[in-house]
Amino acid sequence: MKPLSIEIDKEATSNNRSILIIGMLFFIFGFVTWLNAVLIPYLKIACELNNFESYLVAFAFYISYLVMAIPSAVVLKLTGFKKGMSAGLIVMAVGAAIFVPAAMTRIYSLFLLGLFIQGTGLAILQTASNPYITILGRPESAAKRISIMGICNKVAGAIAPIVLGAIALKDTDVLTQRLSKMDIGQQGAALDALAARVIVPYTVMVLVLIFLAVIVHFSGLPEIDTDKEDEITAVANLDKTSVLQFPHLLLGVLAVFLYVGVEVMAGDTIISYAAWQGIALSKAKFFTSCTLVGMIAGYLVGIICIPKYLSSEKAMKLFSILGAFFTLFATLSTGYLSVFFIALLGFANSLIWPAIWPLALSGLGRFTKEGSSLLIMGIAGGALLPLLYGAIADRFTPQHGYWIMIPAYIFIWYYAFLGHKRR
């Protein structure tokens, strides 16, 4: 019989290896997701769009989570977590490949199709990886593990806009000034050359995603049986026949919907908002990375403080209130100061997502996969709230659009205070 300490060491080593692999996947999530912050102003110029049309980039990407979350859960039931993650990476590669013909033809709908398919692959990955990292260890430290994943995600997210921005938005301030002086033929040629800038980076992305899919497929990631329940959970869920019978989960889905909406608004609108405030795109293209650096700082606070000094609920209460105040200050100030408060929303948003998942999945037992897919559907908030913001920006001003974030943060505070206790 092997000593207990050896068994524990082996389990810890296996968990650490699994966390490393999942961290790599979260890095990919962040890199692909936060490219949208550059694609919105880039495609607005290249495809000659207004604000509302440009925010269809976020809509096409995030609406896939709503449409594909339930099919993703079905895929995971058939394949298990590991093969499902590998399949998600392949789907993402297909979406990235569509950017090549889209750039060659400058057809906006093709770009949107590519983004939708990328989002579909991410829906599969997120449906698998978020509950996986939540369950992989002690429940009370789940928010800490998700915070570590968040750092992987946001480090990639901070890098992505800088990399793509340096390629896609290079000299666009000069280009936009010259376009008005060109005839139609010259404009078309200049915009075709601008659209072609994304061909090489997205071709490289296709190759990287396929390579990672192979690595994950042959990795040693253990399968986790989420259909098993401990005795207490099994007794509590004895009369449950549907995942819809958990009020705290349904309120959690709404909290995710609103949270992702405000997170995407903060990261994806800040470049265009800074330009509206009179800041050159050559400087504004770095502001999404500032937002994500703020999120990384918040995740570090979570790793240090949760659960030793702060519970998930307390962190969520505190940071949602910060979000409401930062939004208010952004709408009441101008110039760099206003943009600075939008960037600070990254810090405010950081510990909300890590707190929602363990609170919403608590006690689901055999309904965990279905619960996870519902939470993933909530990511559609990233599709609808930025689109609403774009409509308000066209009707009034980009600054007025940020008012919709305040009630969202207030509901998130309610979920942390009372909503997650509803049984």
From TrEMBL:
Gene3D superfamilies: MFS general substrate transporter like domains (1.20.1250.20). It is a multi-pass membrane protein. InterPro entries: Glc/Gal_transptr_bac, MFS, MFS_dom, MFS_trans_sf, MFS_TsgA-like. Its main location: membrane. It holds the Pfam family MFS_1. The keyword Transmembrane applies. Residues 18-423 form the Major facilitator superfamily (MFS) profile domain. The chain crosses the membrane at residues 20-43, 55-76, 83-101, 107-125, 146-169, 199-218, 249-274, 286-306, 318-345, 351-367, 374-393, 399-418. CDD domains: MFS_FucP_like. It is found in: Cell inner membrane. PROSITE patterns: MFS. Keywords: Cell membrane, Membrane, Transmembrane, Transmembrane helix. Belongs to the major facilitator superfamily. FHS transporter (TC 2.A.1.7) family. Intake of glucose and galactose. This is Sugar MFS transporter.
